[in-house]
Specification:
This protein has helices at 9-23, 27-34, 37-43, 52-61, 70-76, 81-97, 101-105. By secondary structure, it is mainly α. The chain has one domain (9-105). It is globular, with a radius of gyration of 16 Å.
Length: 106
């Protein structure tokens, strides 16, 4: 989710802390981080299965725990970003409604 920018700010923060805890082999900290509400929200996401681009689109356009993806936040901060983001969401929702994984890839 980090490389595709579908990660939220809270998830990115957790990712950094988890990396540090893993690097230090701090099992207590790892356990505490993995029991956080942010980690729970990530674990609750459905697996990509055979439609990875549909899953990526959902992660990108829909909020988790009241937070939006970094991509959404960046797009909306651009000049005319709100209308541009609205078009992206409209197009992706159309492809999601028809389960068009290949269409999202294109």
């Amino acid at each position: 989710m980090h490389f595709e920018l579908s990660i939220t700010e809270a998830e990115e923060s957790l990712r950094s802390k988890l990396y540090e805890a893993l690097y230090a082999a701090d099992e207590a900290k790892i356990k505490a981080l993995m029991s956080s509400p942010t980690a729970e929200a990530v674990r609750a996401l459905p697996t990509d299965g055979e439609t990875p681009f549909l899953a990526r689109a959902r992660r990108t356009i829909y909020p988790r725990n009241g937070q939006y993806s970094l991509m959404r936040n960046a797009a909306r901060s651009l000049l005319d970003g709100q209308s541009h983001w609205a078009r992206i969401v409209r197009d992706l929702e159309g492809l999601l409604a028809t389960n068009d994984d290949a269409g999202i890839f294109r």
